[in-house]
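Hi R.,

Here's the chain you asked about this morning:
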Amino acid sequence: MEVTCFHGARKRLQGDRYGGPGAQPGLEHLRSQRRELEKVLRNARRDQQLISKRVIQDIEEQEWGGLEHGSEAVEHEKVLQMFKAIQQGTGDRTSALRCLQKALKNCEARKSFIRMENSMQVLLGLFTCNQSAVQIAAALCLYELSVSSDPSIASACSQAITYLLTYLRGQSSKFTELSLYTLGNLAADSKAVRKKMLLQGAIPSLMFCIQNTHAAVVQAAGYVVSQLLQAPEASEKIIPAFLDMGLDQHLLQLLQCYSDLGLETLTELAWCLHYLVCSDADRVHLHAHDIMMKCTSVLTELAAAVVSGMSVDGLEVLVTPLLRCIGNLLAKEETDCCRERVEHNQLLAAIFVFMQSFLQHHMFVVRECLWVLNNLTAGDPSFCSDVLHLNLVPALLQLLVYTGGVNALVLTVLCNIAEQGHAYCLQLIKTETLPALSATLKMLEQEVVGQSMELLHLLFKHCPEATNEFKTHSGIQILEMIQYHSNEKFRLQSASILETHLLQYSHIDNQQ
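And here is the predicted structure, written out as tokens:
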């Protein structure tokens, strides 16, 4: 499965923090702006979607003949000959369908085929015949057509929806699996197909497949469900209908048996859960508490397995939706009580295990972890205390050298901790935060520079004595250099820190 990495809106708000040259930042204004930024960060993943087509090579290779996977150009006349061969029934129809299926891997061949008179009717006739070999070969042709993103092809294939849904309750698990992937591909980018599926009873059939004893069928069903749940129109009827049938509870039960299902199946189910959490569904109906506990439990167990030596290859595609479930639940005010159900130390430990494990090859997982950590620590003294108590700040400071949004998110988490007051700031200072800020203030990324000055302001505000240590790291000179920055807000921000926290103390020191 191809994984798309999403990065939510993390820009700092553009409102001017200062009233003008020489003006001092008002405490309430600063606090209000931080709350607005925090709101943006906390909700950064709510509307992100994963839409992709599935290419199920393993089904063809393992079950039905090891067909080649190519997209070589096929002339129209060649496609026409193949169609006539299956239409007239001369020779071996199964072999003819296999040849057609291989040809339909090419985009132009797909278009040529659906434009031929009665092509879909002939293909559907073979798809519904009583010869299993012919039926499977026709199903593979339908599947190849479903991979296309051409709306006209999806429209032509919609004639097969009734039959595809019927076969979901059949005896062959492999045929059911193939039918599911075909439906999921068709539903991925066609509202008309999704509407027709719903009208013909797709949801009960999909719930039936979700409870199948074959993990491959459950995985394929999860793929179709995820395509429906993330549809633009899902919040109106699709999600409520799934919730009425207890989809979230079924997903949680399956996650509980994650060791039996396999990584790929769990990944599809976790994305389904993610789309439910992102929706505007009623929180009580959604069983938010149970979702928070189960996602935390699975992440904790996965992290423990990684620590014990389990390979992390492919694990990023499962960890990401589970993290997003937790982060999105935390981002909603009406589910703040979910925090009470979280095992703080276990979740924090799991987050840091994943950050360390994926740092070199999957930086997007590190960003996901930091986003969740931001949502956990924002306005929560308990979680901030746990970060300090578990001595996790040094690990965060080590991430400040990484760009691409990582260092900015680290600084945001540190700001959340510093905002809790004197004792928290004192602990941050003891963990060498000030030398780290001396480095980040000189970085090129404007968001990092802005967040660094924000953290510096909070540290000096709650621990004025920290100014002396900052001076030993050339802090005054660094801030004076920012006076020449092209960004006016940064110039004002650095001037305010110098005048409020540093230069007045330097003046007193000189007098003494």
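One quick note: Residues 488-511 form the longest helix (24 residues).

Cheers,
M.
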